[in-house]
Amino acid sequence: MEDKPWDRSDRLVALLLVFLALAAFAKTTGHLFLLADDPEYTFRNEHVKAGLTGSGVAWAFRSVYALNWHPVTWLSHMLDVQLFGMNPAAHHLVNLLLHIANTVLLFDLLRRATGAREASAFVAAVFAVHPLHVESVAWVAERKDLLCGLFWLLAMRAYVRYVRLPGAGRYAAVLAFFALGLLSKAMIVTLPFLLLLLDYWPLGRFAPGRPRLAPIVEKIPFLILAAGTGIVTYLAQDAGGAVNALPFGVRAANGLTAYAAYLGKFIWPHPLAIYYPHPSEIGKAVPAWKAAGAFLLLAGATGTALAARKRRPWLLFGWLWFLVGLSPVIGIVQAGGQSMADRYMYMPIIGLLVLVAWESADRFGTRPFGGGALRTAALFSIAALAFLTWRQTDHWHDTVRRSRTPRT
Q: Number of C-alpha atoms within 13 angstroms, CB side, residue 57?
C-alpha cells in the first residue's frame, strides 16, 4: 500500500484529536505535585532540581533510582526544571502535550499502515480520552509512560516506512527509536513481537510466496536490546526489594484474573482505583473458579481470533497486541504489591481498540444504514469516555483528593 502524505481530511482529524485530548485533560494543568513518587521524580530529587547539568546527565545514565533505570525519563524531568522551574502546572502541561503527540502519532501510524482513515481516527480518539489513561497523563511521575509511548509509536511508524522502502538508514531509525523507548521505560521490550504483528497485518509480509524468515531475522538486534534492558530492570527492582518471590501458581492466577479485569476496565472504566492490592498482600488468594474462568475467557478469545485469522486478521493482531503488550507487567515476575494498574494499559489498549474498530466496520459498516449507526455509536462512546475522563482527573488534583479516589 502506498504511503500517502496527509491531505486536508487528515489534518482536520488531527485537529479534532488535539481538541478531544485537551477537552478531556485540560484540568490537569492546574494540578499540584503529588506526594506519591512525584517527590523522587521532581522536587526532592537534587539531580532533577538542578536542571540539565553535566553531572545530572551522568547521574541519569549511571544510576538506578526509584527502582528503575530510565535515563531519558530523568533528562525529561531535568529539562522541565531547566525551562519552568518547579511550577507543577508546566510539568503537567508537558505530560498533556506528550499525550496529544501520541494520539496524533497513533492516528498517523494506523492510517499509513492500513489506509483506513475512519477506523484509525476512532482508535486514536478513544485512545485520547479513555479514563484508563488518566493515571499516565495526570501523574507527573508517570512521564515515563508517555515518553515510552512516544518512542514506541515513532518506532512503529518508522518501521512502516522501512518496510515500504527498505534501507539501512530507515532500519537504523527504527532501532534508534526503540533504544530511546527502552531508556524511557522498559515496558517497550515487547516491541519486536509487535513489529512481527505488523508484518502479519496489515503489512502482509507473511503472505504466501514471500520470504518469511527475513522479518524474523530483522528483529534479532531488537531482541538483544530488549533482553539487556529486561535484565537491568529486573536487577534494579530486585535490588530495591520490589520483586516478590511468590509461588508461581499464585502469580499465574493473579495474571489470568488481571487480564480479565483489564478487559472489564476497558469496556466499563468505573470505578478506577489508585492502587489495586495483590491478593497475597491482604492475606487472600485468587479463588480457583475465578482463575479458571479467566483462563477460559482468554483461551476462548485466542481460539476465536486464530480461527478467524484468514478473513479477519485484525482480530488476531489486536488480541495478541493486548496480550503481549501487557505481558511484562502481568505479574509472572511480580514487582511491587499491586495486582494491576491503570497506567499499564497505556499502550496495550491500542490492540483492543484496533480489534473493535476494524471488526465493527467489517460487520456493520457495509450494511444499509449501518455506516451511519456505527458513526453515531462511535461518537456517543467517545463523548461518554471523554466526560468520564474529565471527571476522573479531579481525583488527581492533589494528594488529598488522590487519597479519596475509590477502590474496586
A: 5
**What's at 351, amino acid-wise?**
G
pLDDT tens string, the chain, 408 residues long: the values are 556 789 999 999 999 999 999 999 999 999 999 999 999 999 999 999 999 999 999 999 998 898 899 999 999 999 999 999 999 999 999 999 999 999 999 999 999 999 999 999 999 999 999 999 999 999 999 999 999 999 999 999 999 999 999 999 999 999 999 999 999 999 999 999 999 999 999 999 998 888 889 999 999 999 999 999 989 888 888 777 777 778 999 999 999 999 999 999 999 998 899 899 999 887 888 999 999 999 999 999 999 999 999 999 999 999 999 999 999 999 888 777 899 999 999 999 999 999 999 999 998 876 655 678 899 999 999 999 999 999 999 999 998 765 554 443
Domain range enclosing 221? 8-403
- Which residues contact residue 177 at a Cβ distance below 8 angstroms, ignoring those fewer than 6 apart? 151, 152, 154, 155, 158
Asked if the structure places residue 306 within a domain, the reply is yes
> Any idea how long the chain is?
408
3, part of any domain: no
Is the pTM higher than 0.85? yes
User: How much of the chain is helix, strand and coil, in % rounded to 5?
Assistant: 70, 0, 25
Alpha-helical (H) ranges within 26-142 are 38-41, 46-49, 54-62, 71-84, 88-114, 117-129, 134-138
In a domain, 1, yes or no: no
Number of domains forming the structure of the chain: 1
The verdict on residue 2 lying in a domain is no
Grid cell digits, residue 63: 544510576
Q: Give, as one character, the DSSP assignment of residue 207.
A: S
Euclidean distance between CA atoms 167 and 259, whole angstroms? 38
CA atoms within 13 A of residue 399's CA, in its CB half-sphere = 7
